[in-house]
């Protein structure tokens, strides 16, 4: 009996497995996938290879052209940079000349140089802001007060640099600050010492002048040693002495006495 039941169970298992496998979908194998792939067209493959070779050949031909174009672009960039450097150097020179003219009081010339520098340097830059600050000061020194205030206000509102805006605002505030009115009582009076000083100076100069005149008169009255010695060495006989007989007699007598004395001494 047990054997019969075992056989029946085995038969049931086999029938159930078959039904399960029949119900499942058939899975495609790898060889079926390979065989079902679309076939390549040989003409299309050759055309793609020829197109690729043509593209590579055109790239090889255009490469020198690209190198030449790149060199031209670099030369243009260098030329532009050199031109900008020269323009900035010119603007710096004009700015320096404007500062020197302002320091020497030549405000008109200073305005000309600074305005010329602004034609080269853009106004929104930091260097352009410095030039405009100096230009506003030159306007104020040249009695162009309205132009100075307008330029300060423009810098204060529109310039991108914070330092330039702050500097313009401070200078404008100084110019537009209300002037303090001082009464005559609040003013400090300094006594003038001109009258007393002038009188003292006049008396002192007069005294010294009189003293110098007295010293000069006394020195002129006294004969100098040089004049006395000259008069002694150069003897000038009086006029008409050669006609005076008494003079000649006295002279002859004097020579005779001198000769006798010499003989007696021998």
UniProtKB/TrEMBL annotation:
Keyword flag Disulfide bond: no
The entry's keywords: Membrane, Signal, Transmembrane, Transmembrane helix
Domain of life: Eukaryota
Leader peptide range in chain numbering: 1-17
Transmembrane segments: 246-264
One Gene Ontology cellular component annotation held by this UniProt entry: chloroplast thylakoid membrane
Family matches, as PANTHER family: ORF03 PROTEIN
Protein name: Tetratricopeptide-like helical
Species in which this protein is naturally found: Corchorus olitorius
